[in-house]
Every structure is written in structure tokens, then in C-alpha cells.
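Quick entry between incubations.
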Amino acid sequence: MAKTLTQEFTKGLWEEIAPFRLVLGLCPVLGVTTTIENGIGMGLATTFVLVFSNILVASLRNIIPSKVRIACFIIIIATFVVVTELLMQAFTYTLFLKLGVFIPLIVVNCIVLGRAEAFASKNSLTFSIADGLGIGIGFTLSLAALGAVRELFGANNLTIWTTPTSIIGIQEVFGTNFEPFTFMVQAPGAFVCLGLMLCLMNLVGSK
Amino acid sequence: MGYMEIIIGGIFVNNILLAQFLGNCPFLGTSKKMETAVGMAMAVVFVLVLAGVITWVLYTFFLVPYKLVYMRTIAFILVIASLVQFVEMFLKKSIPALYAGLGIFLPLITTNCAVFGACILNVDKDLNFMKTLVQSVAYAVGFGLALILFAGVRERIILARVPKPLQDTSIGLVTAGILSLTFYAFKGMI
Amino acid sequence: MLNQKKLIVSHAPFWHDGSSITVRSYHTMLAALPAALFGIFTYGMPALGVVSLSISFAIIWELLINKVTQRTVSIGDGNAALIGLLFAMLLPATSPWWMVATGTFVAVVIGKHIYGGIGGNPFNPVLIGVAILMVAWKDYFDFNEALVNYDLRFAMVYPLAAAKHLGTSGIEAFSTAGLLLGQHSGGIGATFGLGLILGGIYLIIRGFIRWEISVSFLAGVFVTALLFHMSDPSLYAGPVFHLLTGYTLIGAFFLATEDSSSPVNFIPMLIYGAGAGVMTVLIRNIGTYVDGVVFAILLMNLINPICDKIRPKALGKVV
Amino acid sequence: MIKRSFIGLTKPMLKYEALDLKTPEPTIIQEPKKVSLFLDKTYGFKDTILLKIGDTVKTGQKLSVSENSDAYVISTVTGKISSIETLAGDYGKTFTSVSIEVDENEEIDDQFKTLAAEPTLDSAINFLSGVPGKPAFKIFSDPEKPINTIIVNGVDRDLLVGTNQYVIKSDIDAVKNGVRILKKITGIDNILIAVPQNMMQDAIGGGAQVVTVDSEYPATLPAMMMQSILGQILPAGQSCEDMGVCFLSAEAVASIGTAIEEGRIPSTKTVTFINKDGVKSLASAKIGTPVRNIINAFGVTLNEKDRLISGGPMTGATLYSENFPVLADTDAIMIQDRDNIPFISDYPCINCGECVRACPANVPVNMLVRFLEAGQYEEAADQYDLYSCIECGLCSYVCVSKMPVFHYIKLAKYELGRTTSAEATNA
Amino acid sequence: MRDLLLMVVVLTVLSAFSGGLLSGLRNATAARIEVQQLKFVKGPAIKKILQGVSNDPIADRFTLKDGDIERKFFVGKFDGKANTVVLESSGKGYGGDVGLMIGVNVENDTIVGAGVTTHSETPGLGATAKDNPAFVSQFKGLPIEETFEVTNDGGKVNAMSGATITSRAVCAAATQAGSIYKKLKPQLSEKLKEFNK
Ligand SMILES: Cc1cc2nc3c(=O)[nH]c(=O)nc-3n(C[C@H](O)[C@H](O)[C@H](O)COP(=O)(O)O)c2cc1C
Ligand SMILES: Cc1cc2nc3c(=O)[nH]c(=O)nc-3n(C[C@H](O)[C@H](O)[C@H](O)COP(=O)(O)O)c2cc1C
Ligand SMILES: Cc1cc2nc3c(=O)[nH]c(=O)nc-3n(C[C@H](O)[C@H](O)[C@H](O)COP(=O)(O)O)c2cc1C
Ligand SMILES: Cc1cc2nc3c(=O)[nH]c(=O)nc-3n(C[C@H](O)[C@H](O)[C@H](O)CO)c2cc1C
Ligand code: SF4
Ligand code: SF4
Ligand code: SF4
Ligand code: SF4
Ligand code: FES
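Done. Structure below.
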């Protein structure tokens, strides 16, 4: 059944939302989501790489010989990852510092390679852009959601974006008396939180 | 930093999986059965150590002198991808028995954050050659250890009466969290 | 025959020794009672509050999760109450109510019920609850800070913290008899050494816990502490001190022995117990945490499934 | 049921009670108006049925249902066949039940008498396989599994049961006779007789080496006796016959002795009757007598939801009706009051390890039961020693969760047996 | 053969494209990245060291050649007078190099403040060097051309408890800063004069 352009876009937002449905690309999901801001930043960086590598792969799909396709995909993806690294260093340096090693790690993110291989190498340019955008935004939303839960309980804050001069978001959501449940922003909390969110998704999905 | 600290640190305190969040996809993907977990663990040890050493050499003797550090992401991933290819071909031809055991896990390793991440961490830490080698081995052993322990626990969970929506990955993640919590035991021990 | 009587048809054996989960739970609570009551007498109303709150919350969470998962109500087996009691015994008497609520939730729901309830849990639920609270609200778990407003007959300094920060010189005030009789600060039910030992012996004699685990745990603590002490007597406290302070005794008799997360075979039980003992002292002496029992046992819980594969050869097994 | 002792450190320690020397003679159960005899096979759809309702049969007559099967039963009474039914038992077993209305005037079939003068293995196989004690003579004729040792079981398999011990005490001459005949017809010289410590004297002399068996359950189960008497360990999944050892109950051997001596096939079974309060008595009943008659003879009332058991408390099988007959191997009838029945629960294993410590075969029951509960029988057999189980029931007896562990084990063995035999036929 | 050729060509073209794109981008962003790094990594430390300055030290920076190495100096103006420079040096710590920013008053050659910048020390132990003002403030007011050592080694700097190695690294960095300062003092004074114009 052929899908429309809109469907290709929206499937990434629910049906195939990563990482919940695909259970891939877990490392950044777990590693950086201590705040919404980090989640969004990581998500957008991944989306950027995803969309541009999809564009290039889809445009070149008829030229790339199948034997070396994985190597080509990797070169393409790695190129955009470095582009992202450089741009982030130049324009959002603090975020770059917070996300640390996870930015270069986009290169091994199974989702990105997975989309190149499974989708962009077989579909037209426009569809591949829709796919990349959809999956990327879905990924961003998931990361933001996880970041929101973890930050809310673990730090009593909701930070959407920090600029050098101010913070967009809410601080001390539960009031100043609340002692944050810092387990949530620690390593084990990431796993537990993601696991429980996945359980919720399964519950909602099965209805 | 002494060797002992690198070893204890790499295996337990800064366990690449549980403390640094690297390599989670194979961690969850290959831990349902002890057999696969052991296979994956061995494959990772093999590739991670080789890749760690080779990327260090590449970084120290090529990228740094030629001021190409910003290209390390590309350089490393290409090294790892070709290394995996090469190891696969080599094993297939020369040690078929080992290939039969590790073969299916090798392609997965190309997209394993643990391998790539360990290479990056190694060069970031500015270690010398021997220490890089020891550090890679420690990371790899830490990965294998966590994976195998996790598989032991997961084998039991599969037999428990876990509620439906929690089954499989969901409960796996929660358990991985507790696993990571138990590794807090080693905090401060280096 | 028309007037056929309905008889019970079932499978052999037709006898049962009468043991049950309910009986085990209540007897474990009974064994824990002396230490818990001692804590309540020592710390007064706040301690009583924490204990009753903890037991009630544990039961409420269990009931709720029974309803949510649509399973038979299992609060009757006493396990939830036991979890509540043991959990409270580890807490400082001043724990705020929300900490008790969160901790029992973690213990009962995350620790036990997501694994399908009793018997499925790979880790000791009580310890998961405590460990998560320990990392989330460090300050509330710092006994020196938590119990600062108490003025009791004995020095209100947490012995393990004193040993950690000041070395042996910090613990001269603690006599062995004092430690045994609960003349030191700590968790509500964790300080009364004599009571815990009596409870433990009761459980061992009744066969409710396996002596191999408790004994090897204590031996592990003793030997490791002794080695440390011999290496630097001014820095590391002696073995008896380690046996009688912190969670060592409650850990040996009530926490490490939780069924589902501990081994059942002889050699694995020894490995498990001794491993937990050794790790306890390692964490206390060279790790970050003041007391190592919680993480040491959790770590051994993790090793349990693999460790318990060491077992005697089954009859007639051909290899 | 037996309560756990206050001190729970040790294993269960269930002792066989040695038969009291002053045990009264068995209560003789009157011959019933109707008997039911069981054949171990059912007849197939296309089989020629040899028996008809209304046929008259004589005492001692050999009854076969079909030509295609060598299963038979020896009639214990004279009378008219009133019904022939097939019945299903546990784990896929099937029976044919032949009911006979008893005639007052007993006529004896004398086909066997002539054979008795010159006993052979063949005549034993053909006439004596259904005597009290149910000796499995057929195993002596399997050329692939030669038997080299016979153990005469003067002990009883289960707790509280005293049938074979009684035979040793009351009828030792018949047993010795039987041993002699067995030697003759099977050509096997190595015959041992196993008795409890206090009966050692009774059994000595008679051509069989006397050995004693420990008094703690499950020392009398075949696999345990192989180990304690012969020093052989039964390999997992194999039977004693595979190892060349055959167990015959003392009652069976005595029956052989009597049969050959007197030229008459014995038909009276000694049954231990275990009352609701655990008191045991002996009864002597014709094979085929409904269990009801025994219960009535002891003046016991069986209520709704009580439990009626054929065999002992650890390994017996429940009967769903009092009309069930005494069979050739019914060593005991046990009644349990509904208030004393320990129920099983639907709790999972809590990993307490009681079963592991109780298991005489070192089976990792705690793990095994998880796999069995999940229906993963093959893993259970491969990794968790399902086939090492000697079926003593101790694991269920001690299970804190009150899981039907023993039931799971038997079911798993049965299911695995079915799949392997299905594979064998398909292959 | 054609396939092989195609493979080689595609791979080469891709690599070339990638290399070109990246080196172009690298050149285009290099300057900005440097500013950003200075602003976010060194900026906070510099700001702390030069409390109350009237200029923007990151904008007022200059480089000097120290042998082959280019060193950056940040200028602080107090009361309209450019009399302070901040320079960076480093020492070997527990987990790698520890970067130290150190501010020196060129008029009396004393330290006006110091702050740790980059490091990979253990959180809770060595990492406190960065957050804990008590440790680095020990350097304040000391003459720069000294050899700094922790008390254990016979010096007068109190080490952070549990992090002697990091403390040593900071001392070594300060000592190194002193020698750089000494070596480049003449040029420094020259440069500062330009700022005072
Ligand atoms: C399940 C549950 C969890 C809670 N967790 C916290 C918590 O983590 N931290 C906290 O300070 N209060 C927690 N609270 C309590 C309320 O937020 C409390 O009213 C608030 O902290 C103010 O309390 P205080 O005035 O006693 O400090 C929790 C309450 C419930 C019911
Ligand atoms: C890094 C990584 C990449 C994977 N990629 C794929 C993939 O492309 N396709 C796929 O079917 N499974 C993929 N998997 C999933 C595993 O192969 C999966 O666990 C295995 O197929 C067994 O899954 P099962 O539980 O469905 O049998 C991947 C796993 C990992 C760790
Ligand atoms: C001190 C003590 C208190 C007990 N309290 C209860 C109780 O509140 N509820 C309960 O069901 N059983 C309680 N029991 C256990 C019962 O006495 C009884 O042994 C048990 O319910 C039987 O378990 P079963 O139903 O599994 O056979 C208690 C036992 C002891 C020793
Ligand atoms: C989920 C669960 C948690 C338990 N927690 C403990 C515990 O921490 N300590 C304990 O002694 N018993 C605990 N018990 C009860 C224990 O397994 C055993 O029944 C009693 O200790 C009696 O031996 C627990 C049981 C279960 C199933
Ligand atoms: S499993 Fe048990 S209850 Fe079910 S048919 Fe078989 S014997 Fe009967
Ligand atoms: S238990 Fe042993 S003697 Fe009895 S039938 Fe089975 S194999 Fe034969
Ligand atoms: S019935 Fe149970 S206790 Fe007995 S041998 Fe089998 S597994 Fe072991
Ligand atoms: S006795 Fe029952 S609950 Fe205990 S380990 Fe054995 S099967 Fe599990
Ligand atoms: S995202 Fe890290 S291994 Fe897949």
C-alpha cells in the first residue's frame, strides 16, 4: 500500500516513533535527556543529520553501487555529523558542551543509518525528506518528553532553552519546598524512566 | 593514572554501558538469551580492542600532526566500519568456528556506540599507547560483564509473570536501570 | 451410581508440611520486631510514625497495583507488610512522609510487582527502595544530619561516618557492648544488634532463612574488615565494629536472605554471602558511601542467577 | 497432613513406620456382589471383541478382550459379565473395565493347574501377571534388556503402607518358595530380598540375599534402592530394567509361590487401609472388590469433598469414586478428611529453596518449576534435570508456595514422552 | 570491471565532496568557534579572576609567540588602566591536563586570581577545583614568579582533600604560568602599553 507524503511524515510521530517503537538509538536518549533543552537539542541535531543524509542518499540512490552502499551512507552521514559538530560549536556552544560525545555519536545512531538503508535508498527525494523530518521530529519529541519527565521530578524545573542571558522555561515547578527526586536525572533513572514510558506507550497502543 | 585504576575504572566505575550510556542497543537487543549475550560480548571485546588501538594510532600520528582533528568522526567511523568488514572476512576464511559464533554479531557492531564512543573517549583522555590498549580492554570487558550479568537476570525475568505491557523491552530497560544502580557500589573506588 | 459423592481429585503428594508464604512473612516480621520496637522506644513518636506509615503505604501500594494489574489481591500473604516493616527499619527516624511514600512505592511497585509479584523479583525490593532514596535524597539519609535534633543517652554520631572521616580515632567512644545494645545512632531498626541477632537465630532455627547466607555474609565482613584493619589500624576500624554497625546485622539476617534474589544451592549461597560481605567493607573503606550493605547486596543479587548455576550433579545425570 | 517441626533447619525427615509386630490379622472383606477387573489395554475399533456381556466366567479363568492384544485379566470370581467399559486414567493411560456379577456357586477354572506342575516363564507370563502384587514377568522375556538381578521388595514404596511388610511377616514361606521358583523359571540367580531393619531375621534363609533398607522416605523408591543396595546410580531418564534390575514386590513373589505350590491363582489382595486420622489397618479383599466395601468394613464415612486415595500419601493417586475396585497393585487405600486437605495455590515459586534441599535426586526444582510452568519442557529436560527426578513428591510436600510441583513434573514427562513417540512414528 | 570503476569513482567523489565541504565549513567557522570557546570555556574563569574590570577582556586579547607556541593573553583594565593580564597554562592532573587561567598584575607581579578551565577530573574529587573557590583563592596575592607546591611536597598550598594529584596539577600550572610570564614580560609590557593609549 503506497503511502501519501503526509503519511510518510506522520508515521514517524506515532506509529514508528523512535525510540519507543524501534528501540534503536537508545544511547543519546538515555545519555542526554536530563533536561528538555538537551532533549530538544539532541533531537534537532539528529533531525538535521537525518534529513540531509536522506536527501543525499535519495538523490544519489541510482548512482551508488549496492556493494559499497553502506560505506557511502556512512561517509554521507559522517559528513553531516561533522557539519553539525562545527555548526553547533560555532553557534550553540554551551549546548554542544552539554551534549558532549553524543553529537559525534550520531554517526552510529542506528536510526540514521537505518533510515538511509531502509527508506531513502529506495524512495524518491520528497518522500525521503518527509520520512527524515517525520522520524526526526518524532525522535525530538520523544527526547523532549523523556527530558521533561526527568527534569520535572529530578530537578524540579522545566528548561526549554537557555540563552546566555535568560532561561526559557519554568523553574521550581513544585515550589521551593520540594526536594527534587534526583534519581531521575541520574543514569539509572534514565533507564527506569524510559522503561516505564515504554510501558505506558504499550498500554495506550494496545487499546 | 595507573594501570590498576584504568582497569577498575574501565570495568566497574566508569562502565561504558551503565555509567556512560554507550552501546545500549546491543545491550537490550542481545541479552534475552545467555548464548547470544556471550557471543555479542566476545565480538565486542574483539572489535573494541582492535578499533581502540587503531584509531589511537590514526589520531596520534595522522590527524593531530596534519591538523585534521575535526575530521576524527569521519575517520574513526570509516576505520571501524572497514575493520569490522575485514575482521568478518578474516574470520570467515581463517577461523570458521569463531566466525560461526560471532558472525551475526559483527555487522551490528559497526553501529555500536560503545566501540565508537570508546575510541573517542580514549583519544580525549590523551593516554599513551599502552594505556589506550589497557583502557580499551577494560571498557570491552566491562561491556561484556554487564551484558552477561544482564542476560542472567533477563533469563529469569522472562519466566516471571511480568504484566503484559511491561514485557520485553520495557521491563528490560527498568532492569537495566537497576543494574546501573547496583554499579554505584563501585563509586569512588579508583 | 446416581448418588455419586463428589470427592477431591488432585495429584500426589497428599500431604504438605504446612509451610506457607503467609507464615513465613509473619514470622519474619515477628523476628524483626524486637529490633523495630527498640528503635521506636529509642526514637519515639517520629519512629513510630515512620514504621506505621511505611507498613500502611506498602500495603496500599500493593493493593493498588493488584487492582491496576487486575490480579488477585495479595496483601494477605503479609509480604507487603514485611517489605514496609523492613523498609522502615532502615530509615532514619526523621524521614519525611513523602520519602516513605516514594520509597515504599519503589520497593513494592518497581521492586516487586513489575516483575509479576512475589517470586519474580531479581533484586531485593526493600533494597531497591532504599538505594533509590539514598541516591536521590542523600541529605535525608545522612544519619548525622537527620538525627541532629536528638539528644539521647549516647553520642549522636553515626559510627560509620565517624570511622570513614576520622579513622579509628573517631570511634573510640563506641564499645562493643554499647553497639550490641543499640547505644549508637542509625536506622530505626538497624541499631539493636542483640535483637537482630536473636531474630536472625530464630529465623535460622525455624528454617525461614538459610544460615549459609547469613553466616558467610558476616564472615565476609569480618575477614575483609580484619585485613583492612591489619593493614592500617589507625585508618580502618576493626572487624567487630563493622559487624555491629550500620546495616550489617539487618543485612545479614533480613536483607541478603530475601528468597527470590538469593541463591538456593550451597556453594552459591556461600559465594553470594561472602561476596556481599566483602563488598560491604570495600565500599565502606574505599568507596563513596558510608555504609555499603545496600549496594553490596544489590550487586550480589545481580550475580545470583549466574552464580546459582553452580549446583550438585543431579542423580544419574549423564554429562 | 504432617506439620513441619518447629526446627526447620533440616530436611523433612519422613520416617516409614515399621509394621508393628502385634498388628492384627487383616480384616477379611466379604466377597462383593459385583467385581470390576481392569485390563491395561483398551480394545480398538476394529478389534474382534472376545468377551460379551452375559458371558459366564469361572474363577481363575483368563479373560482377554481382543485377539490383537495379549493383555488379560484373571477372573477372581465366578459369575456373569455385566458390563465392559473403557476408562481413561492419568497421563493418557487407558483401561478396560470388565464387571462381573458374582454367582454364589464358585467354579474353578483348572487350565492353570496343569501348567503349575511344570512352571515355566511362559506360563507365568500368561497366567500370573495379574496376581496380587502385579509382577511384570514380561520384562524377563525382552532380549534387548536382559535382567540380571531381581530385588524382592519387602518394604513398601510409600509412607504408612504396610502391605509388603505384612507379607514378609505372615507369609515368608510363600515368599521363599516364590524366590525358588523365580530362580528356576528365569534362570536368574542373583535375587535379593529387601526388608526393614527389624525384619532381617524373618527373611533369612531361602536362597535370596537379605538386605535392609533405611527407614527414611524415599529410601524405598526403586532408584534409591538401586543406589543403596546395588551401589548403582540410575542414569537420568532410564528405568531400572534398562540397567538389568527388576523389582518385584514381596506380595507378588509370595503369590507366585502360592500359585505354583497350590496350582491355583491367588486372588486375594492385602490392602493397607489408612483412616482419616492416619491410623492404618490391614484388609484382605478379592481383587475387583469396590473400595466402598473396604471403607464400609472399617465403619468410616466418606463425605463430600473428602479425598480417596489409592496408594500412600506421597505417591498415590486419587480416586474419583468409591466404586473403583481394588486392583492387583492397590497396596493401600487412604482417606483424607476435607478439613485436612492441603490445597494447592496459584502463587509462583518464591525461590525459597526448600524443595532443592528436600530433593533426594539433586534436581534444581526451583528453576525446573519455572520452566515447567511456562510450558518449556524441553529446556526443563535439557538444562534442569527433569529426567533425574525419581518421583518422590517431596518437593511438593515442602513447597512454601504450595505449588503442584510434582504434578508439573509428571505432566512434563508425559508430554515429552508423547512428542518423542510422535516423532518416532513420524520418522 | 565497470562496476568496480563505478565504485571507486563514487567513493572518491563522495570523499572529495565530503572533504571539500568540511574543510570549507571549517575555515568559515574557525574564527567563530574560537570566540565561542573563549567565551564559554575561558570566559567564566576570566570574569571571576578579573572582577570589576571596565573592559571586555575577551575582546581585548592578544597573542604572543613563545618559541613555537602561540599564547593568548587577556587584558584587564582597572580604573581605566590596563595593568592586568590573564594567561593560561596547564598541568598534568588525574584524568588528563588541567587548564588554569591565572591573572597577574604587571605592576607588582602578584597574582590577582586564578581559575580552573578545562579538566577531566573525577566529579566530587578533583573536579571541585573548578567550583570550589577556596582552593584557587590561595594563590591570590602571591608573587607569580614562585615555585608553587602543595604542603605534602613542602610547599604552602593546601591540597584539596582526596585530590592531591589535581592540586599538584594546579600548582604545576601556576608555576608554568610564572615562567611564561617571566619569559614574555618585556613583550607583555609593550603590548599593554598599546591598550593604555
Ligand atoms: C507520592 C508523593 C511523592 C512526593 N515526593 C516528594 C518529593 O520527592 N519531594 C518533596 O519535597 N515532596 C514530595 N511530596 C510531598 C509534597 O510535595 C509536599 O507537600 C511538599 O514537599 C511540601 O512539603 P513540606 O512543607 O513538608 O516541606 C510527595 C508527595 C507524594 C504524595
Ligand atoms: C545495533 C543493532 C542493530 C539492529 N538492527 C536491526 C535491523 O536492522 N533489523 C532487525 O530486524 N533487527 C535489528 N536489530 C535487532 C536484533 O537483531 C534483534 O534483537 C534480533 O533480530 C532478535 O530479535 P527477536 O527478538 O525479534 O528475535 C538490531 C540490533 C542491534 C543491537
Ligand atoms: C504473629 C503472627 C501473626 C499473624 N497474622 C496473620 C494475619 O494478620 N493474617 C493472616 O492471614 N495470617 C496471619 N498469620 C498466619 C496464620 O496464623 C496462618 O498461619 C496462615 O494464615 C495460614 O496460611 P495459609 O492460609 O497459607 O495456610 C499470623 C501468624 C503469626 C505467627
Ligand atoms: C518480593 C519479596 C520481598 C521480600 N523482602 C524480604 C526482605 O527484604 N527480607 C526478608 O527477610 N524477607 C523478605 N521477603 C520474604 C522472604 O522471601 C521470606 O519469605 C522470608 O524472609 C521468610 O524467610 C520478601 C519476599 C518477597 C517475595
Ligand atoms: S493435567 Fe491434571 S487435572 Fe489436567 S487432565 Fe491431567 S491429571 Fe487431570
Ligand atoms: S521404578 Fe524402576 S522397577 Fe519400577 S517400573 Fe520404573 S523402572 Fe521398573
Ligand atoms: S519429586 Fe521432586 S523432590 Fe522428588 S525427586 Fe522429583 S524433583 Fe526431587
Ligand atoms: S519449595 Fe516451592 S516456592 Fe520454594 S523454591 Fe521450591 S518450588 Fe519454589
Ligand atoms: S544508539 Fe547506542 S548502540 Fe544504538
